[in-house]
């Protein structure tokens, strides 16, 4: 490359610009490990001595009534909220509490928000392109080229989320369900080790729900997936292991059937609905 | 200064002398009417020799004539004059224009207006002025009520000579009021200090009177080391007190400026803070309020006070109505697009400014300050507070309190808060969000109008009035924390004080620049201001 | 450097450059080759006026880059424009040499007038063209870097950012009004004589400045186009529409904002530097908040996030201003104010939106990048 080319990569001089993406160490089992995490807002304990372990490749569903701390838990894992006390480890090498949001993201933790947020002014293809794991510093981004390899990777994800035909469409004209899938696709582009998915089927039709269930179960194994969901039917259709949160800590954990028969769970959360279903 | 002989005599003999003088003065007037004695007394003043005049003044003083005070005061003010026609003495009551209203100096009866060309003024020189002042003070000290005695005692500090000192000593013994006695002893102490008595310093300690300070400064340079030392220490003390006074003064000006900022910003705090609407025409709504005051005074000539009081509701209404027009005409179409709202309302501000320039005048209009708002309150010798600023401060607090009450205690306030927090939910509960929008905007705009009414008492009323406040107002709201009325109050007052503290040190312009830079930096540190709104609703 | 070549593969850029080139050539020809009596003759006064419009157009492009693509409404871009202008003005001032009224070879007239006995340190070096031209970019660039660093780091965005950018330019205006600042106070810098040895009063120099403005606009346009067409441009749009989401994708949003903001400020400074020799004066009024917000109107009228819309808007509004202030000065502020309201309420996509509606094959939402194929 020319002199200009070397000028363009001048930023490599600064060590602190290099993201801390050394590989995640999962030799000791869990990919995510929360211990005694507590956080309070204005005296209200949103998370109270929460302990949670997610294994590598696992698909975990987290349920709990409103205000149980599900969203706050995700905020803590992604670095948006700092806990008052406790430990949050990603694999056995990365202390998430010392990292910023982008650092955590580039480490391989992807998050899907409750409300689908895709970049509506960009096409489906461009949305995925931006999400792709790549050098995300300024000059590399400015000079980034579209290579065949990238194109293949994007096509692969487009196939997974079933949006091949919408490739060049503006994201703004996608249906609600399609936006959710696109967002999951964007997470996949980051080659995450851990996917955090917040209420993926809210507002979806039956068909869309089925496709989503397929998509998520297909992902597990390659990635670890944590799904927060309200819809019991949906949870039952995908869940292998379920964690019930209540008032900021774990109330019960186990298979769907175990959890659903736990009297404490029935009392605080499943309530009438569960009684009807289990009866 | 040449001191008339009569003044050098002890008090008791003086009275005797004066009686004699009186008799002498009265001689030519023997056989005339009842007022002739007074006429004769005044006749003495007509002499060309200032010595003679001094004697005549003394004669009047000793005459115990009840009109003496009036004459001497008139003489001092240059209002004692003589009719060229018949030599009668008159007192000029008002001296503007060519025809002056006068009254007879002897009978007190009004004589109508007389051309100033028909009058001869009785002239005096500086020596006589000093004599008159001391004399009048002395009369005042004997005859006046406590307030005028106090003023008189204060007036003679630094003016005392040996003769007067003797008179004051005797007066001091009879005086009942502690305050007056304190002043008198200070006046005497200054006199003693001038004669080199070091123990006089003690009496003067802590006085803020400027003549006391002059005397002490002079004494501090004296050859007597004991006296110089004592004076220096007393001076240092006084300087300390003065410094405190200056701090108080800075604080006063700062709070006054701050309350103007609060007034200007509080309307914004409602429209921007509560509704999230950026109204760049807010300054122009203030301008309309100020012009309403001006128009009101044009409608009610000669009654500036009444006009000002009426302007308060009128200014509110005018600004509120224009605000409603802006909300309905423009802002409602730009809901959820704050940056576009900013641009559109900026356009409106240009239009309003140009409208005033075209319709009224591009020049500043002057708004009269009613009598009860002009003048000042003296706290001590070195500190006095101007009334108009005091009123504006009170007004700002009043408006603030009213707004807090409206937001906290009324149905409107409740609905406004509901709509701000969750528009959809509020509508679902039957709150008419559109109506709330209109009312809130009208309220914010109306308050801007009130700010304009208040500003008309402090600055020039012109088409650019609003422009000069808009950036400051936004700074106050952002500094205080958007959506928080108390934050606006604290921010406005503290920015006013900060500005005043910086001003003597850095100059007005630099102080303003520094405040702006300070806020710009502050916002980086705390993007949500001093008192941020908490919770999820404030996010995003 | 393929990203810089990208704009030349876009039809819209080629059309824009073609139109610009044609306009420059036409004006030059009509001025040089047509005799003055001829009705088509373009006087040097008009050429000068067009040159001024072109520098405004570059300024508008700079504002559109941050507002259109990054969603940052800067109400303080006039400050960067003025700083570039002052850097140029300082150079031109030093070029006067001893030909000023006081004949002082080292000090500009206003410093002699203020009884200053030596040149302040920050005036050193401005007698050298290369240094001054460097400062034209660096002065606004550094201010933008400092200001942007603080603002974006603490995530000040939206209307807050708009308000503090306005405060920034207001504070600078107050500062430059002070004589003690050493920039000529109220009167600013003026009475320039020559630039790079060319007499500023000669027609040839003026024509040269006009062409230079055109060239700068072309370069600035291509640069901005290259930025927005790159992946970085798409990150900007992503930031504009969903900042938090972009952050979660692993982009250091504040750095992208800072980068684009600084580039934009430098372009604004360049525009200011071209503007000053053409109008012959720079004074603190260029810092006034009114001017900065007017720039935003040009962009809004032309159409946000299109770049060429900014150029159209700048030329349209300023042409209208020249005409109106000449014919009925009172009406200008009315129409300017009216424009603000009309454009925001009725024409949110600006003139470019109208054009797109008329010509574009596929409709796209405002602020989208124009129909560009992603290509290798």
TrEMBL record, chain A:
One Pfam family of this protein, by short name? ABC_tran
Which key words are in the record? Answer: ATP-binding, Nucleotide-binding, Transport
Which parts of the sequence belong to the ABC transporter domain?
A: 32-272
Membrane spanning segments where? none
Q: What is this protein called?
A: Urea ABC transporter ATP-binding protein UrtD
Q: Name one GO molecular function term.
A: ATP binding
User: What SUPFAM superfamilies does the annotation carry?
Assistant: P-loop containing nucleoside triphosphate hydrolases
Automatic annotation (TrEMBL), chain C:
Q: Which domain of life is it from?
A: Bacteria
Chief location of this protein within or outside the cell: membrane
User: What subcellular locations does the record give?
Assistant: Cell inner membrane
Q: Where does the sequence pass through the membrane? A: 12-33, 79-97, 128-152, 159-177, 207-224, 256-275, 295-319, 331-357
Give one Pfam family, short name only. BPD_transp_2
Q: What are the record keywords, sorted?
A: Cell membrane, Membrane, Transmembrane, Transmembrane helix
What is the membrane topology listed in the Swiss-Prot or TrEMBL record? Multi-pass membrane protein
Asked whether the keyword Cell inner membrane is assigned, the reply is no
Family annotation (CDD domains) = TM_PBP1_LivM_like
Which NCBIfam families does UniProt cross-reference here?
urea_trans_UrtC (TIGR03408)
Name recorded for this polypeptide: Urea ABC transporter permease subunit UrtC
The organism encoding this protein is Billgrantia bachuensis
* Gene name tied to this protein: urtC
